[in-house]
Design brief:
Order of helices and strands: HHHHHH
Strand content: under 5%
Structural class: mainly alpha
CATH superfamily of one domain: Potassium Channel Kv1.1, Chain A
CATH class of one domain: Alpha Beta
Radius of gyration: 36 Å
Largest sheet: none
Length: 137
Amino acid sequence: WILIDRCGKHFGTILNYLRDGNVGLPTNSQELEEILAEAKFYCIAGLVNLCEKTLENRNTVLSPVCQVEFPEARIYEETLNSFLYENRPGPDQELMRATSVGGVYGPGVGVTSCTSDEEEDRRNHHRLIKHDKEYSE
């Protein structure tokens, strides 16, 4: 029995290389570097060379996939503009009627929702007038 105190994540790749002399390497550079570290630990020179050559080829061929050219303020501005200038249909008239003074139940049937601050101000003004008339009688 031999105890190997290593993570087993890439041990299958190491075994396959030892069996076949060749192995498919991952496309992820981080995983490739992890396999390289394991190959160095186990002193498998062929796999070390294969990993190093693959990393060199990827570093020379690959260019950055994405470059950020706009500061954050520009991104926020573009997002706000898309909300401001998108083409949307007007408000749903049925919804506006249902949420206006009285709603679908008619005036004074316990519905107190308002569609705007102006409408709420008008409602409060009418209540004050009604209250003043009742008080003066």
